[in-house]
């Protein structure tokens, strides 16, 4: 079934009422013919995807932030409850505060199932609420990123009603149960690999980490967990001493069954109990051994569900801010159509997974702030933070003209007129970015950000267009050879196989 907003003709098909707004279906169909012509009346239709046959249509008016239903017709093949639930979900998707309907025929069972409550004579209302959940995924030493996300959300008065944490997200989540990040900041300002695992480093590169994981798995030689317990114990005691503001649930994995396990903090939770569950949720096997709790073994929650969006939705959340701090693709849980998921994820690689360094944590926290501000409109950009409304459209329209003005880069401009070369360049720009459909603004931003990344422009400041171009020019003087500078003549084939050469041309024109 697909939903449309057209106001269709009913034809001769005997549509029935989905809900008793009129005395009978004939009166409802007659009213529909007049109502659909009114400019202030909106429609939601249900159409069978296979046959393209109209199965139902609902008409409504907007009254402040309410939808006032004035008609609802369905075919004989469609159940009234199913149709109304479809439509109510759409109103929830569009974030109406409530739906109102005036009925002359009451169907108590239908009203109850649709959660429509009587507020006046013949008037029924369904109010919508949109609880927010903050879901903190695992990510080892990247965990400070989530604290930066929380700080910006709180600044924007986006406070969670539910809190979920997995692995390091369980550590950070525990410190945010009272919607204050003071403890989280203090923790990340001092957390080192030695304090977590009792050694200086685990693996600075992916290859080194893989060697450590293999060695620990074969020899069952685990790093200690007692130091992490010592860090957590006073923090947990401090958090549990205060009344809980929001429900907090963490995820661990029962071992060796690899069974997802949820632990919800409540008023009866004791300090040692929560400490053990947090250690279990973050027990990255085989770096550390499983944690025994009540006769069962548990390891890192990320082994079964690194970002429990689906469970946050089942808990009642309609707005879910999910913080994902790992590399690779994100598993997309199935959630109801009226649940909006805001996936906060840095486009940058965040570095070693299990080596904790305060200076790197400070960078991660700043990147969490930047990405969240970009999503909320405080900053423009994707890889880099720009002042809002920074306009890259003129740049996208002029950089090819600039290439044509210089003898060294004119061949690039000539070959960019070739549709295949131009397509290959845009495809190359689209790798690892969120830009897929290029309007002039998106294209200009994609070009300038890719050039900034190749030169290593600092990712933490906030730039204007002018200051970013200045940074590119300065680094370009120092790192000219970091770009693929052609040693021979520029050819069509060369640009198709090495599209980064086009950015060498852009840098050349910016330096003039």
SSE diagram, text form:
Layout: E1 2-4, E2 16-17, H1 25-35, E3 42-47, E4 54-63, E5 66-74, H2 80-93, E6 98-102, H3 108-113, E7 117-120, E8 123-127, E9 132-136, H4 144-155, E10 162-166, H5 168-174, H6 182-190, H7 193-197, H8 206-219, H9 226-240, E11 248-255, E12 259-264, H10 271-281, E13 291-293, E14 296-300, H11 309-314, E15 319-323, E16 340-344, H12 358-376, E17 385-386, H13 393-405, H14 410-416, H15 419-430, H16 440-455, E18 462-463, H17 465-478, H18 492-497, H19 500-510
Parallel strand pairs: 5-6, 9-10, 9-15, 10-11, 15-16, 17-18
Antiparallel strand pairs: 1-3, 2-5, 3-4, 4-5, 6-8, 7-8, 11-12, 11-14, 13-14
Motif (GXGXXG): 138-143
Active site: 167, 300
InterPro entries: Acyl_Trfase/lysoPLipase, NTE, PNPLA_dom
Summarize the structure.
With 512 residues, the chain is of the alpha/beta class.
Describe this structure in words.
The structure is a single chain. With 512 residues, this protein is α/β, with parallel strands linked by helices. It folds into 3 domains: 2-127, Gcn5-related N-acetyltransferase (GNAT) (Aminopeptidase, 3-Layer(aba) Sandwich); 132-376, 3-Layer(aba) Sandwich (Cytosolic phospholipase A2 catalytic domain); 392-511, no CATH class. 41% of the residues lie in helices and 18% in strands. The strands form 3 sheets. Strands 1, 2, 3, 4, 5, 6, 7 and 8 form an 8-stranded mixed β-sheet that branches. Strands 9, 10, 11, 12, 13, 14, 15 and 16 form an 8-stranded mixed β-sheet that branches. It has a two-stranded parallel sheet with strand order 17-18. A hairpin with a 2-residue loop joins β7 and β8 (123-127). α9 (226-240) crosses α10 (271-281), α13 (393-405) packs across α16 and α16 (440-455) packs parallel to α17. The longest helix is centred in the C-terminal third of the chain and has 19 residues, at 358-376. The protein starts with a strand and ends with a helix. 40% of the residues are buried. A motif (GXGXXG) lies at residues 138-143. It holds the Pfam family Patatin. The active site is at residues 167, 300. InterPro entries: Acyl_Trfase/lysoPLipase (IPR016035), NTE (IPR050301), PNPLA_dom (IPR002641).
């Amino acid at each position: 079934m697909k939903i449309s907003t057209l106001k269709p003709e009913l034809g001769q098909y005997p549509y029935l009422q989905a809900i008793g707004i009129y005395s009978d279906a004939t009166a409802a169909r007659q009213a529909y013919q007049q109502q659909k012509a009114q400019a202030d009346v909106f429609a939601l239709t249900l159409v069978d995807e296979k046959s393209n046959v109209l199965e139902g249509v609902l008409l409504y008016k907007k009254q402040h932030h309410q939808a006032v239903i004035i008609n609802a017709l369905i075919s004989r093949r469609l159940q009234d409850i199913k149709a109304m639930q479809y439509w109510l979900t759409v109103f929830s998707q569009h974030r109406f505060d409530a739906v109102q309907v005036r009925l002359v025929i009451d169907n108590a069972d239908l009203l109850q199932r649709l959660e429509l409550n009587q507020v006046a004579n013949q008037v029924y209302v369904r109010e919508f609420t949109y609880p927010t959940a903050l879901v903190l995924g695992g990510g080892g030493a990247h965990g400070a990123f989530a604290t930066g996300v929380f700080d910006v959300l709180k600044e924007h008065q986006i406070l969670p009603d539910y809190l979920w944490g997995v692995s390091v997200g369980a550590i950070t989540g525990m410190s945010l149960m009272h919607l204050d990040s003071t403890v989280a900041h203090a923790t990340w300002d001092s957390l080192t690999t030695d304090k977590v695992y009792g050694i200086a480093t685990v693996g600075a590169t992916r290859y080194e980490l893989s060697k450590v994981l293999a060695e620990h798995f074969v020899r069952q030689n685990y790093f200690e967990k007692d130091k992490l317990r010592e860090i957590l114990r006073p923090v947990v005691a401090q958090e549990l001493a205060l009344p809980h503001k929001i429900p907090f649930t963490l995820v661990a994995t029962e071992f060796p069954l690899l069974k997802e396990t949820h632990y919800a903090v409540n008023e009866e939770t004791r300090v040692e109990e929560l400490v053990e569950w947090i250690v279990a949720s973050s027990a990255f096997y085989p770096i550390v051994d499983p944690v025994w709790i009540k006769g069962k073994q548990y390891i890192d929650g990320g082994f079964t569900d690194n970002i429990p969006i689906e469970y946050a939705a089942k808990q009642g959340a309609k707005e879910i801010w999910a913080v994902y701090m790992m590399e690779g693709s994100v598993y997309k849980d199935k959630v109801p159509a009226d649940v909006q998921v805001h996936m906060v994820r840095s486009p940058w690689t965040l570095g070693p997974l299990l080596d904790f360094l305060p200076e790197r944590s400070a960078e991660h926290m700043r990147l969490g702030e930047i990405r969240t501000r970009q999503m909320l409109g405080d900053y423009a950009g994707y890889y880099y933070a720009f002042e809002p409304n920074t306009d890259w459209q003129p740049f996208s329209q002029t950089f090819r003209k600039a290439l044509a003005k210089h003898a060294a880069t004119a061949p690039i401009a000539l070959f960019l007129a070739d549709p295949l070369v131009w397509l290959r360049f845009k495809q190359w720009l689209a790798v690892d970015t969120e830009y897929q459909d290029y309007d002039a603004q998106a294209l200009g931003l994609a070009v300038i950000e890719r050039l900034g990344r190749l030169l290593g422009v600092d990712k933490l400041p906030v730039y204007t267009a002018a200051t970013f171009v200045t940074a590119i020019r300065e680094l370009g003087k120092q790192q000219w050879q970091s770009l693929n500078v052609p040693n021979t003549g520029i050819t069509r084939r060369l640009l198709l196989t090495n599209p980064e050469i086009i950015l060498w041309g852009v840098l050349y024109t910016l330096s003039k």
